[in-house]
Amino acid sequence: MDLQYSEPIVHKPKAKHTATILILHGLGDTGHGWSDLALEYRQQLPHVKWIFPNAPTRKITVNMGLKMPGWYDIVSFDKINGMEDEQGIKESSRYIQSLIAEEVKAGIPAKRVLVCGFSQGGVMALMALREPVEVGGILGLSSYLPLHMAPTIVAPENKDTKVLMCHGTADPVVKYEYGQISVEKLKAAGAKVDFKSYPGIGHSVCPEEMFEVAAFWMTCVGTA
């Protein structure tokens, strides 16, 4: 499938560039939907370059085949293994790895690059664990791990990479239990993962969650 990935939204660092954060949006969204984070956190993280990639437009089976931005196709939300489009996941993973490679070429070590995402974007962030490139940290918000990939999810290079998963207990789209199962599978595969729950929160983020996300970012890349 020949899909086009449009240019990502990029916010340059306020100070000397020493780290990069990639934020991967969810199904039907674009990088613009999350790009305000760069403005919100530029004081706390002045050394960070922010990259907000855009998923290609594709037919999404669960949405009656309508075309919309998506990192991969989703067949069903009813069970965790009904969401898997392995070809699409791998194609988008290659694209995300190319963005990391560009940062390395520009002089930023891969271990100073954080890969973060919401929902479908969180799945793509977790896929960075499979690659033989050590990244600085991985964040999945309201997300899950494709179960058939679980046994091989952690490459030796990323066995010590910090992973944070955050999930609202009232999520009607990616069910909270999917997040719980995913964390169990990640731990079984050897990932260094932490899991945060937010009572009553649906398929979205909340201020308490973003406070912990910011703390995670600062733990991974510091404040300068």
UniProtKB/TrEMBL annotation:
Superkingdom of source: Eukaryota
Keyword line: Hydrolase
* Keyword Hydrolase appears in the UniProt entry: yes
What is any one of the record's Gene Ontology cellular component terms?
cytoplasm
Molecular-function GO terms, alphabetical: carboxylic ester hydrolase activity; palmitoyl-(protein) hydrolase activity
Similarity section: Belongs to the AB hydrolase superfamily. AB hydrolase 2 family.
Q: Does the keyword Cell membrane apply?
A: no
Which Pfam family is one of this chain's hits? Abhydrolase_2
What organism is the protein native to?
Answer: Symbiochloris irregularis
Q: Which residues form the Phospholipase/carboxylesterase/thioesterase domain?
A: 8-219
The stretch of residues making up the signal peptide is: none
Q: What is the lineage of its organism?
A: Eukaryota, Viridiplantae, Chlorophyta, core chlorophytes, Trebouxiophyceae
Protein name per the record: Phospholipase/carboxylesterase/thioesterase domain-containing protein
